[in-house]
Design brief:
CATH superfamily: Cytochrome P450
Number of domains: 1
Number of helices: 18
Helix content: 40-55%
Oligomer: single chain
Structural class: alpha+beta
Bound molecules: protoporphyrin IX containing FE
CATH class: Mainly Alpha
Number of strands: 10
């Protein structure tokens, strides 16, 4: 095992404040680094760009450990709570063949073309948020700009009627924040989705719910739990991540005044802001940990069967073998496209086109309509990891 590492460093508050130093050391170690999760699970951390890609493509690394390890207890679905049952059926937690089947049923709704149809609707939402912010002297970049975008977009995509949106927002907030109300929200939200499915069955519309209901009815390829789990996953996977991207992009721009000026001079740089924020400070630090299904040789070392594999996107996206000056935020860089902030392989983010579209529109509108925007606090005081709790105070 690589020397010089304490086995619980990854969760140490000091490392939390600056995980990049840790990932640099993991990369330099030249082999996977063992960390013991607070639950006692053994995680092998991998942080090099090429090695993380290998891990994401590896046929013996995956989620459904119960199908490989005789000792892993498989609880019968009827013994599980609704929350646990739905989670186990989520696309992101499945391997082929179930993963392939479910993903095939929904991927058509998330292609670049399908998502582009939402552009006028998202632009209109962005214009309204920015216009409201202009009337205020001081705003919160999270509550007033970033937070309302993804939840409304997902509601529009799924086909949640205007009148139901406040309830939809409340459930989504409870589920996404994993608050104590989470389990009750999952159950109520599931019941609401059953009701919405029944409405779309009787009266189909041009939305994702109508498509899913048609698929479920046509040849039994999607059952009720899978349908509910999928819509819940869209919320969980798409809300915090997109808010995080918009807010961190804003924070980084406003603390690099020459790059903020460049965007205001030329708003066509908005996609470059999106990509560099994804690379430099993407919303996902480590992909949901996988299992090694057998002993595997990877990243210069060996991971024993049934241990966890922790593939670090933050490590990969700051690998000096791929990115010049990896620890500098630079929207003008030309090597940024190789970042893997949306993952890679069979679980590559389903919402990548959508997240890119939403954040690009927001950066474009903010640069055009709020040119005087600046941080209301010293950037050094902004603790990256607490942004979600403290807000991002901005002067308009
Ligand atoms: C999967 C990142 C936004 C839906 C993933 C994965 C990453 C990711 C890294 C792969 C996880 C893995 O390999 O285990 C992001 C980032 C986002 C974002 C950085 C925003 C900036 C969204 C949005 C949606 C979405 C807006 C949908 C509305 C999904 C789904 C999966 C996924 C359904 C699972 C795909 C599968 O398992 O096949 N995302 N995501 N994401 N994402 Fe996103």
């Amino acid at each position: 095992m690589a020397s010089g590492f304490d086995v619980s460093e990854l969760w140490d508050p000091a490392v939390r404040r600056d995980p990049h130093r840790f990932y640099d050391r993991v990369r330099d170690a030249g082999e996977p680094v063992l960390q013991i999760h607070p639950t006692g699970e053994r995680w092998w951390v991998i942080a090099g760009h090429a090695d993380v890609l290998t891990g994401l493509r590896h046929p013996a690394i995956g989620h459904e450990i119960g199908r490989h390890c005789p000792a892993a207890r498989l609880t019968a679905p009827h013994e599980l709570s609704e929350v646990a049952r739905l989670e186990a059926r989520q696309l992101i937690n499945l391997d082929p063949p179930d993963h392939t089947r479910l993903r095939g049923l929904v991927s058509g709704g998330f292609t670049a073309r399908a998502v582009a149809r939402l552009e006028p609707w998202i632009s209109d939402l962005a214009d309204r948020l920015v216009a409201r912010a202009r009337r205020e002297g001081i705003i919160d970049g999270i509550a007033d700009l970033a937070d309302p975008v993804p939840v409304n977009v997902i509601a529009e995509l799924v086909g949640v009627p205007e009148a139901d949106r406040p309830r939809f927002r409340a459930w989504s907030a409870a589920i996404v924040s994993a608050s104590v109300d989470g389990p009750a929200a999952v159950t109520e939200f599931g019941a609401y989705l059953d009701e919405l499915a029944a409405r779309r069955r009787a009266d189909p519309a041009d939305d994702l719910m109508s498509q899913l209901v048609a698929v479920a009815d046509r040849d039994d390829r999607l059952d009720r739990d899978e349908l509910v789990a999928l819509v819940q996953l869209l919320l969980i996977a798409g809300q915090e991540t997109t808010v995080d991207l918009i807010v961190n992009g804003l924070r980084l721009l406003l603390s690099h005044p020459e790059q903020w000026q460049a965007l205001r001079d030329d708003p066509s740089l908005a996609p470059a802001v999106v990509e560099e924020t994804l690379r430099y400070r993407g919303p996902v630090e480590i992909v949901p940990p996988r299992y090694a299904f057998e002993d595997i040789e990877i990243a210069g070392g060996r991971i024993p069967a049934y241990d966890r594999v922790g593939l670090s996107l933050w490590g990969a996206n700051r690998d000096p073998a791929v990115f010049d000056r990896p620890h500098e935020f630079d929207i003008h860089r030309t090597d940024g496209r190789q970042h893997i902030a949306f993952g890679h392989g069979i679980h590559f983010c389903l919402g990548a086109h959508l997240a890119r579209l939403e954040s690009r529109i927001m950066f474009d509108r903010i640069a055009r309509q709020l040119p005087g925007l600046r941080l209301a606090v010293d950037p050094a005081e902004l603790d990256d990891f607490r942004l979600h709790h403290t807000g991002l105070p901005l002067l308009v």
